[in-house]
Amino acid sequence: MTDAATPTASRPRAPAAGLLQVTVPPAGASAGPGRRRWWARLRRDRTLLIMTLPALVLLAVFGYAPMLGLVMAFQDYDLYDGFVHSPWVGLANFQQLFTDPGFWHAFWNTLALFSVQLILFFPVPIALAILLDSLLSRRLRGIIQAVVTLPHFFSFVLVVTIFNEVFGGAGLLDTYLRSHGVTSPFDFMTDPGTFKLLATSQLIWKEAGWSTIVYLAALSAISPALHEAAAVDGAGYWRRLRYITLPGLKGITVLLLILNLGYALTFGFEQMLIQLPAVGSGAAQVITTFSFENGIVAGNYSYGAAAGLFLGVTSVILILSANKVAHLFGEDGLYRK
Amino acid sequence: MITTEPARAVPAVPRRPGPRDRVTRLLAIEARPAWQERPRAATQGAKSGVIAVVLLVIAIPLYTIVVTSLSTQASINQAGGMVLWPHGLSLAAYQEIISGGVVGRALLISLGITAVGTFFSMAVTILAAYGMSRAESFGHRTVLWIMLITMFFNGGIIPLFLVVSALGGYDQYWALIAPSAVSVFNIIVMRAFFASTAQDLIDSGRIDGAGDWQILWRIVLPTSRAVTAVIALFYAVGYWNSWFNILLFMPSDSSKWPLQMVLYDYLTQNSQMVVSAAAGFQAAVPTLALQMAVVTITIVPVLIVYPFVQRHFTKGVLLGAVKG
Fold this sequence. Notes:
The complex is a heterodimer of chains A (337) and B (324). Chain A is globular, with a radius of gyration of 28 Å. The two termini of chain A are 39 Å apart. In chain A, helix 7 packs across helix 12, helix 9 packs antiparallel against helix 12 and helix 12 crosses helix 14 (237-261). Chain A folds into two domains: 15-74, no CATH class; 92-328, MetI-like (MetI-like fold), CATH 1.10.3720. Chain A has 18 helices and no strands. Chain A has helices at residues 5-10, 16-23, 34-44, 46-69, 82-85, 92-98, 101-121, 123-133, 138-149, 156-167, 172-179, 195-220, 224-232, 237-261, 269-279, 281-284, 287-297, 301-328. Residues 1-31 of chain A have low confidence and may be disordered. The two termini of chain B are 40 Å apart. Mean pLDDT of chain B is 83; it is low at 271-282 and 320-324. Chain B has 324 residues and is mainly α. In chain B, helix 5 (101-131) packs antiparallel against helix 11 (225-241). Chain B has a domain at 100-268: MetI-like fold. Chain B has 16 helices and no strands.
């Protein structure tokens, strides 16, 4: 498909509609009243707008309609009465929510799980990136990167299953311990006490390699001349790491850290939901699973939606303020200022 | 391990290539920068050790799952569970799966949903991305904002469940595709690529009388093959891995379940099933091998697709980070 050949090839089949569009004068050219210019632009770009329609319809049905459906958080929603006939109850659902010990347990558990995961996970991809970057063999680097990135493309069901075959009862480790005379059964997968570590190690196994990519790009942007100058001045490896490499990674690290904070309340839904039956709600209940269990599983739709609305609103506030902070640090964040 | 000869003041007599040069070529080893000191042997050793551990931590679980799926009952009994050193391999578990039953059907269902879903998502994404790609076009900023808002806020699970149920989606396959069919993020990435298509190409097409459909199909798409392929593969992996949608919209009808749900079912009932596997001498195929075959089958399509995505995803991730 060479650049020059394409338009020429399409010439014989050009439809009349295409010709029409060329003859419509560009927006700036017609000096008529604003209304006519508006109409002309709409006519000129109608094909483009029609093209966005399928996506807009899908978002309207599966994005915006559920948003409107959140009014049910202020109702005592009943499946048979629907949104129109269900009785309004004001803030009763929220009153119940904020006095529910189960909700507060889920809330604090979410924050605890998030903090542990963030603190233990965050340095791993940075260390991995520095290690990979120091390799002189391009091929070896490529192979390692391919291997460590692979689990990113596994589902959490698969990741938990894989962990279960290694750390679960009758898993690889348990089998090994038993064959070496350890009689007490070993089951890391169902122990609520160590669940935070388990969840973190799953996250590291699945995502550390993927997160490395961004840091590797930042490392390759550091000018080798800096390293060279420092080395000539007598700086050893550790000093160069401390004064050149790490400062070079600071921008992207701060940015990712801040952006991650935006998802503090919504992270890990599937991961927790899959493991709730095994470790119990004491260890794995987060706000998202709390909303799902109350709303869908128990059929208490309005109550679950109230938890969902609380989550949605706090998340928007978190994400927007995280981006605000990112802008203060002079970074772009999710969107530009 | 990773060593190159330091620059030495040797006469410029060409050496005969030795085994070390072959290693250098095979591993594509770059020359160490002149200013960089050679690491001590201990550092090299520690580095090699860390790399080996990292690789093994990912490889061993995958290896033991595949090997166990290929093991005979005798090997499994000898190992007492998951197999590391197989004694005799057998394809019995896979034959059992192919010959029909829950897993074979689930595999076909998963492949079908992935194929149909990816095609549908790509059609919608490409059209929307092109529709918003022209600067100055009428209303594209409004459309963009309508889309962006859904990235920051959504109604949550329960209203979505009620909307899909009200549309008759409960236990229907379209409910596993339509609600997650558009990723606004993917549209925005693709839009950035489309917008960077050379303007003079598009202009010359327009002068030749091509309309927007033709420009998209004959100029923009052919020049954006790489990004199209990457996004298609991301969608495909998404559909293949999707699990929660099934739990939400198709929790009880196990005859319709895709693979991930079958896997989840095995996982959550694992404790009993492993016990019964240890006692399952009478069965022709060991239960544990069958379970591990299910896990393997879930992994394999990802492994097949992976090399194709892997070449591109650095670009994809960075583009997302920069232009998202």
